[in-house]
Amino acid sequence: MTWRPVLARHVMLRRDPVRDTDLLLMPERVVVLRGHAGSVVRLCDGRREVPEIVAALAERFPGAPVADEVPRFLSALHEEGWLR
Amino acid sequence: MTATVDPPWALLAELTHGCPLRCAYCSNPVELISRSRELTAEQWTDVFRQAADLGVVQTHLSGGEPLLRRDLARIVAAADTAGLYTQLVTSGVGLHERRLAELLEAGLRCVQLSVQHTDPQAAELIAGARVFSAKERAARLVRAAGLPLGLNVVLHRADIDAVDDLITLALAWGADRIELAHTQYYGWAARNRTALLPTRDQVERARVTVRRRREQLTGSLELVWVAPDLLDATAKPCMGGWGAVSLTVAPDGTALPCPSAATLPALDAPNVRAHRLDWIWRESKAFNAYRGETWMPDPCRGCALRTTDFGGCRCQAYALTGDASRTDPACRHAPDHHLVRALVDEAPLRNSAYAYREGGT
Ligand code: SF4
Ligand code: SF4
Q1: CATH classification of B10-226 is 3.20.20.70, yes or no?
Q2: Is A25 touching B (CB cutoff 8 A)?
Q3: Measured by CB atoms within 10 angstroms of the end CB, which terminus of chain B is less buried, N or C?
Q4: B101-146 pLDDT, tens per residue?
Q5: What's the predicted TM-score (pTM) here?
Q6: How far, in Å, CA of B83 to CA of B190, rounded?
Q7: Given A23, A27, A28, which is nearest B57 (Cβ)?
Q8: Structurally, what CATH architecture does the domain formed by A12-80 represent?
């Protein structure tokens, strides 16, 4: 089955205007998403497959090593149980 | 100092001091705030908005028993609308299917359920009320709703030998997390200190059990052990530092750097009815009283651990020495540490019964 990443139910992605960063909120925990990590997570809507997410990001950030880094980042979030 | 104050992450919203339980270890004040002085849902809505503007991203709706607030769903919705990640901290009493559905609809994200013991009778003795089956039902409903469930166990002499069973219970109830936290001897709990303090042997056995269970767990359950500061002779990093990470708003709107700080008579805590949260956090005397390191006495002042434990707990310093600015007597280096040693050594020798609060709400 192809993986269409989506945030686990207990995880909330939020823009933090006060600290000017993206956050993952969960019980008893806040994860600060640095750099463009928030843009990656925002594309995890349960409809896009990983290659589509990579393609969207490649378009947005030309020259960035998205093909390697994004899948790795997504599986890391999956490991943590934050992405389903 | 004002310019360099970092914003808070979390708000502990104590919606009511009313509670159907009468836990011997309750760290709420001896004198509870009466229900007639509670903030209204409108006032909480304003507090959440201000908190979010200040930088708060998470709120714990607590008490007392927050389910006693009939307008709880409105309060949850207000927190969610303000963009706060909302957790309900409850005894489980009063959490029926319809009620939970209403809270879910309002934007509730997770539930933390207190558990007193795995044995219903022992639990009743500790909580001063028959509550075990209500908790079991609450856990089931929360899981059925697909919400994350955390169990919160306050450890003391009468339940610490059950940690193994408590962890098993957490697995059986499908919890995501269990927090085993030693009693905080403030408020009502201070009255029962002699009856509650565990022995050193009990703590060591529990520690070994937790270590063993943690190795066996395959990642489904997060197991948190909050150390017994008095028995470990180690100051706890209280609140992640005074006025550093989170703030508490008591049922009547009193804003506090820590839930127990209401016990500090000289604090002159500000109230959200009279001041903006931003001012309270950044400017008020109460929130600056023990912020940073300038207030620290010796030996904290020159100690390498001061950036890790922030000199320990002010409420404990006050409770044991009458002076909130002394080094936390829990710390082995504290000039007042002999007070703690005496408490820990003597408590188990005395056989005392619990004092319970009168009535429930
Ligand atoms: S559940 Fe127990 S500890 Fe919590 S407020 Fe009620 S009496 Fe106090
Ligand atoms: S002396 Fe102060 S800073 Fe050092 S460990 Fe003790 S409480 Fe912490």
Answers
A1: yes
A2: yes
A3: N
A4: 999 999 999 999 999 999 999 999 999 999 999 999 999 999 999 9
A5: 0.93
A6: 37
A7: A23
A8: Orthogonal Bundle (1.10)
